[in-house]
């Protein structure tokens, strides 16, 4: 994963003046260095390198401490974008220094940077899901569709080149459908696609965090396909311009140190972190917690895990088939030197660690932490006993582990008790494979848990 910087590039970097994003020289020998960070406030798996990091002020504090030592005044410009594409455009134009985005946009970032002679590098991870649960295909609440294979001849909204599009392509192929011929893909931004689904102009929507959870929470859509069924890791990460980091390595080091601070805060105070992100984005805190909570769909860890890098390599052919990139040298794009330095001696252990086993959670109104349970049935029994003060109930899918809202899940009862599933198709397969099992409504499951 390590990258060797040539002497020529290093020398050229030293000759660059302190102007633009890199800063500007000032009288008296002092200097001001401005770093521009591109982030996506609504893509909440980037919060430790974006909205949460910004709200905590951790990056500014790190830079201020370093500035006192090296006599440089550091300034931070935060620029919020809806997707990763404009961040890449600004990076290759030299106007954004550090950006965060999903795995497919990261590959586009790598390809575009190399093409334009302004290379970028993946330097850390924000949130990940080793099975792919950050992407979901949704349909309307009253839709008769119950399985992805039923999308033949249907219109599906997605954002071409996004991880959600990659999930859709792979899932359709596994269902025996040709993504280019058997469905009509409509290329739309997430908000436009959500509106199109509600208006009935598309039959399904394949999108990334936090849109599926938001639409489910609002009762505007239900899950048709859980991306975790692919069992292929998906993640969001931080990319940095090579020329900027060669010139100002201390800035990137400060950023990654601050990201570690934001990650620790999210892990230690998941409810408070969800509330902060909700206040800054306008998203319901319950939706933020679904993804970013203690047992949420995403796990936050800045280390560049080999399994995530391998998944990135598997993403390249999907983008090549769509003619969005040519060959991408993932190993050259990944640069773990900076995050290893920021993390210190514990990096090896942490990079080998994975998400904890999923558990069910109940969030009561006014509570500063959730109550956790070993089984969905225990969570429902607790929720039934606190019916008037329940804010949200989260349960993991019995097969994929993907956390979902209990009142939006598909419930099954068998001889072992109650099980929750994100989608009807997975629940149906479980029922078929387990004689005596049957589906039941959430209200029935809640009553059964209360009576047990």
The second-level CATH architecture of the largest domain is 3-Layer(aba) Sandwich
The low-confidence runs, each spanning 5 or more residues with pLDDT under 50, are 1-20, 24-29
CATH homologous superfamily assignment of the largest domain: Periplasmic binding protein-like II
Q: How helical, in percent, are the residues?
A: 40-55%
Q: Bin the strand percentage.
A: 15-25%
Radius of gyration: 23 Å
* Oligomeric status: single chain
Number of domains: 3
Number of DSSP helical runs:
19
Q: Structural class of the helix and strand makeup?
A: alpha+beta
Instruction: Specify the biggest β-sheet.
Output: 7 strands, mixed
Count the strands? 19
Per the CATH scheme, the topology name of the largest domain is D-Maltodextrin-Binding Protein, domain 2
Shape: globular
N-end to C-end Cα span: 53 Å
CATH level-1 class of the largest domain: Alpha Beta
Which helices and strands, and how do they pair?
Elements (H helix, E strand, L loop, with lengths): L6 H9 L8 E2 L5 E9 L11 H6 L1 H13 L1 E9 L3 H9 L5 E5 H13 L4 E10 L5 E5 L15 E4 L4 H12 L9 E4 L2 H10 L4 E5 L2 H7 L4 E5 L7 E8 H6 L1 H20 L1 H12 L3 H8 L6 E2 L5 H16 L8 H4 L3 H7 L3 H6 L7 E5 L6 E3 L2 H10 L4 E7 L6 E3 L4 E5 L2 E5 L2 H10 L4 E3 L1 H10 L1
Parallel strand pairs: 2-3, 2-4, 7-8, 7-9
Antiparallel strand pairs: 1-2, 4-11, 5-11, 5-12, 6-9, 6-10, 13-14, 13-15, 15-16, 17-18, 17-19
